[in-house]
C-alpha cells in the first residue's frame, strides 16, 4: 500500500500551554487534525467554565488564518469543584470532559484531587448528565515504584470508582500497561482509553539503556516491551474502546535537558505520521481510520469529520528542533526518518 486516505483525525488528549507557546502548538495541531481535546493543567489550572471560555478564545485567536481546527475544552477537577460547575460546563456546549489528576501525578498537577472520595458529588452529577471523566491513572504514593503506579491505581482506585459509578463515562488517558488494556477490554462500553505515539513506538530501554534520554521522558513513564506490545495490539485491534490521544506536551529544550527534566513528549510536528508508522509495522493500516478518526468522536457523541487526509508512503526526516513560542524544543523522534507523509484534503 502506497497511499491511505482516511477521515481527518481528532486528538482526544493534548496540551497547548498558554501565552507565546500557543502560536506554535495550535499551528502544528491544526495541520492534520480537525479537533483537539485540550487539557486544563495550566498554571493556574482551568477550574471553571468562565476560565475555559477565556482560554478557548485565546486558542482560537492563535489559529492560522485559514484554519477551521476546533479546540474541545476540559475542566480541572479539584477537591473544591462544585456539582453546579459541572452543570454549567455541560450547558456551555464547548466543555466536553473533566480531568482527574491525582495531586502531584504529573506536570502542573499539584492542585489535583487529594482523595477521590472528595469528588463524590461531582462524579454523581457527571454520571447523571453524561459528562465524561478523563483520568490520569497513577497513584502518587512515594512507596510505590514508578513503573507500578498505573497498575496500582487500577487496583486501588479505578475498580472501586467503576463499581460505585457504573454509568459514569470514563476515559483512562494515555495507558501504558497490559493491565490497563485488560481492564478496558473487560469493561463496559462506557470505559475507554487513549494511547499515545510514544508508548506505541518506545519502551523503557529507549529511555534508559545506554544513557538517559530526557526527550523520551513522560508520565506515565515508558514501560517494558511486553507492555508496549499489549498497547500495539489494543490500538490495532479495531476495538472501539481504544482511540488516539497524543498527550503531546511541549517543553523547551532547556527545561527537558536539565538536572530535573520535566515530563512530556511533543508529537504534533508529525503525530498522525508517527501513528501510521506503528500501524504499518503491525500490518494494520486498515485499522488506523477507526482508531484515529472514528472511535473517539463516537465515544464523546460528536459527529465524525467529513474532510479527509491522505497518507503517502514516502521517507522523510523529522527536524532536529522546532519552535515553542520564542524558544526551542526538541520534538519526539527528532532527526529520525519516518516512512509516511500526510497530505491534507480540503474537499
Question: What labels would you give this structure?
Answer:
34% helix, alpha/beta, 8-stranded parallel sheet, 3-stranded antiparallel sheet, globular, 347 residues, 12 helices
Write a brief caption for the model.
The chain has 347 residues and is an alpha/beta fold. 34% of the residues lie in helices and 19% in strands.
Mean pLDDT: 95
* Overall spatial form: globular
Q: Radius of gyration over alpha carbons?
A: 19 Å
Question: What does the main sheet amount to?
Answer: 8 strands, parallel
Number of DSSP-assigned strands = 13
What is the number of helices?
A: 12
Order of helices and strands: EEHEHEHEHEHEHEHHHEHHHEEEE
Beta fraction? 15-25%
Strand order of the largest sheet: 2-3-4-5-6-7-8-9
Query: What is the rounded distance between the termini?
Result: 23 Å
**Which ranges are low-confidence, i.e. pLDDT below 50, for 5 or more consecutive residues?**
none
Instruction: List the quaternary state of the chains.
Output: single chain
Helix content: 25-40%
Kindly name the structural category: alpha/beta
Description:
The chain is an alpha/beta fold and 347 residues long. It is 34% helix and 19% strand. The chain contains 12 helices and 13 strands. It has an 8-stranded parallel β-sheet. A 3-stranded antiparallel β-sheet has the order 1-10-13. A two-stranded antiparallel ribbon has the order 11-12. Strand 2 (11-14), helix 1 and strand 3 form a beta-alpha-beta unit. Helix 3 (83-92) runs parallel beside helix 4 (120-129). The longest helix is centred in the middle third of the chain and has 16 residues, at 149-164. The radius of gyration is 19 Å and the shape is globular. The mean pLDDT is 95.
Amino acid at each position: 500500500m502506497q497511499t491511505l486516505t482516511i477521515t481527518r483525525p481528532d486528538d482526544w488528549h493534548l496540551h497547548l500551554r498558554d501565552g507565546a507557546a500557543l502560536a506554535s502548538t495550535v499551528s502544528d495541531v491544526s495541520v492534520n487534525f480537525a479537533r483537539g481535546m485540550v487539557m486544563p493543567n495550566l498554571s493556574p489550572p482551568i477550574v471553571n467554565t468562565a476560565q475555559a471560555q477565556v482560554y478557548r478564545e485565546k486558542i482560537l485567536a492563535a489559529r492560522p488564518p485559514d484554519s477551521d481546527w476546533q479546540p474541545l475544552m476540559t475542566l480541572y477537577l479539584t477537591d473544591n469543584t462544585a456539582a453546579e460547575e459541572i452543570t454549567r460546563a455541560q450547558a456551555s456546549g464547548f466543555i466536553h470532559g473533566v480531568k482527574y489528576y491525582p495531586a502531584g501525578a504529573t506536570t502542573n498537577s499539584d492542585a489535583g484531587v487529594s482523595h477521590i472520595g472528595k469528588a463524590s458529588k461531582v462524579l454523581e452529577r457527571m454520571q447523571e448528565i453524561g459528562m465524561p471523566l478523563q483520568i490520569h491513572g497513577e497513584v502518587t504514593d512515594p512507596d510505590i515504584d514508578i513503573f507500578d503506579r498505573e497498575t496500582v491505581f487500577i487496583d486501588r482506585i479505578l475498580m472501586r470508582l467503576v463499581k460505585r459509578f457504573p454509568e459514569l463515562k470514563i476515559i483512562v488517558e494515555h495507558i501504558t500497561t497490559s493491565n490497563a488494556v485488560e481492564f478496558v477490554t473487560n469493561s463496559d462500553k462506557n470505559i475507554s482509553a487513549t494511547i499515545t505515539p510514544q508508548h506505541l513506538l518506545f519502551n523503557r530501554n529507549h529511555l534508559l539503556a545506554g544513557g538517559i534520554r530526557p526527550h523520551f521522558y513522560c508520565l506515565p513513564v515508558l514501560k517494558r516491551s511486553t507492555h508496549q506490545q499489549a498497547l500495539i495490539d489494543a490500538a490495532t485491534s479495531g476495538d472501539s474502546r481504544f482511540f488516539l490521544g497524543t498527550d503531546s506536551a511541549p517543553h523547551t529544550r532547556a527545561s527537558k535537558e536539565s538536572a530535573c527534566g520535566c515530563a512530556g513528549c511533543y508529537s504534533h510536528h508529525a503525530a498522525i505520521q508517527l501513528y501510521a508508522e506503528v500501524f504499518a509495522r503491525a500490518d494494520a493500516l486498515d485499522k488506523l481510520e477507526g482508531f484515529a478518526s472514528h472511535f473517539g468522536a463516537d465515544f464523546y457523541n460528536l459527529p465524525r469529520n467529513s474532510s479527509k487526509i491522505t497518507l503517502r508512503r514516502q521517507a522523510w526526516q523529522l527536524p532536529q528542533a522546532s519552535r515553542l513560542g520564542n524558544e526551542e524544543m526538541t520534538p519526539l523522534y527528532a532527526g529520525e526518518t519516518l516512512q509516511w507523509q500526510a497530505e491534507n484534503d480540503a474537499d
